[in-house]
Amino acid sequence: MAGIAATLALAALAAAAPLNIRQDDDHTELLPPDGPTEYQISYGPRPYYIVNDMMEGDLKDKLDQCKNGPFSVTSWSIGHRGGGTLQIPEESAESIRAGARMGAGILECDVSFTSDLGLVCRHSLCDLHTTTDILLRPELAAKCTTPFTPANETSDATALCCTSDITEAEFLSLCAKMDGFNSSATTPEDYQHGIPSFRTELYDTCATTLSLSGYIDLVDGIPGYRNFTPELKTPPASVPMPFQGTYTQEQYARDMLNTFLNKGIAPERVWPQSFLPADIYQWINEFPIMGSQAVYLDEAGDTPEGLINATARLPDLKAAGVNIISPPFNYLLTYGDSNNDTIVPSDYAKAANAAGLDIISWSFERSGPLDRVEATEDYYYSTFAQAVSYDGQLYQVLDILANEIGVAAMFSDWSATVGYFANCFDLTGPVGGSYYNGSSNS
Question: Whole-model pTM?
Answer without folding.
Answer: 0.93
